[in-house]
Design brief:
By secondary structure, the chain is of the alpha/beta class. The protein has helices at residues 2-14, 65-74, 107-112, 119-130, 157-174, 184-191, 197-201, 218-223, 228-242, and strands at 91-92, 98-102, 139-143, 178-182, 205-207, 210-215. A 6-stranded mixed β-sheet has the order 1-3-2-4-6-5, with helices on both faces.
């Protein structure tokens, strides 16, 4: 892991927080390119990287991720449906090592129908690569709410309540080895208690029978480089769990 750690720290040192005076929805970040890490032994890529795609994985009752995605696309259970361009069910592989869960889609995600594909998403991809994870190979990425909250505000409790059953069904179908909540909102909703993210990081958790790890949202780290070290600590803990340490 020493080479991976060095590559990760090179990335963190190069990433700076630009445009501090802008709002979250207006920010534009230049995330430096790094050489791709050497591929780790892992399962082969599966379908799911296309726009809004979800790989089918039937349960005993006939439930599939495709069925959940179709219901998300047609959902009108809360006011968020009124302003969306596209719902964003999630994407990745079946039976992933890790399911990453964020807060909700942003502007780029709303346009594309895919999760974490804006600047913060590209930064997240580099986090995952540093610990040998990839949405095309061994991860699934989703959000607590599947439609963009106006102005990227936090989702309201009733909006979360309407959307969480979709996430629960996805977790039960995917059966990931671990969950990774990125950001305070995702951690609050999955743990059922509102606390600062720093307080969430100190505990050991499960959600729906799956170990749950918590770290900062990539956009928070882009705004505040001092969060780089705790994020790396959290990612190392996740990697150690996956390795059976």
């Amino acid at each position: 892991m020493s080479d991976l750690r060095a590559a990760y720290w090179r990335l963190l040192r190069l990433t700076e927080d630009y445009f501090d005076g802008q709002t979250r929805g207006e920010r534009r970040y230049a995330v430096p390119e790094l050489p791709a890490p050497a591929p780790a032994p892992a399962r082969q890529p599966a379908a799911g990287a296309a726009r809004g795609a979800l790989p089918a994985r039937p349960a005993a009752n006939g439930e599939t991720l495709s069925r959940v995605a179709g219901e998300v696309a047609a959902c009108r259970l809360c006011r968020l449906c009124e302003g969306r361009t596209n719902a964003v069910p999630g994407e990745g592989v079946p039976n992933p090592a890790v399911m990453v869960i964020g807060e909700g889609p942003g502007a780029v995600e709303d346009r594309s129908g895919r999760p974490f594909v804006g600047p913060a998403g590209r930064y997240l991809d580099r986090w995952l690569a540093a610990i040998e994870l990839d949405r095309r190979r061994n991860c699934f990425i989703a959000n607590v709410v599947k439609c963009r909250p106006p102005g990227n505000r936090d989702p309201n409790p009733d909006e979360v309540a309407a959307c969480m059953p979709y996430l629960a069904r996805q977790i039960d179908l995917l059966r990931p080895r671990a969950l990774l909540a990125v950001g305070r909102v995702a951690a609050d909703r999955l743990l059922g208690v509102a606390r600062p993210l720093a307080a969430h990081r100190a505990g050991r958790y499960e959600h729906r029978g799956r170990p749950l790890f918590v770290t900062y949202h990539p956009s928070a780290v882009l705004r505040d480089p001092s969060l780089r070290a705790p994020v790396w600590e959290d990612l190392r803990k996740l990697r150690a769990f996956l390795d059976g340490a």
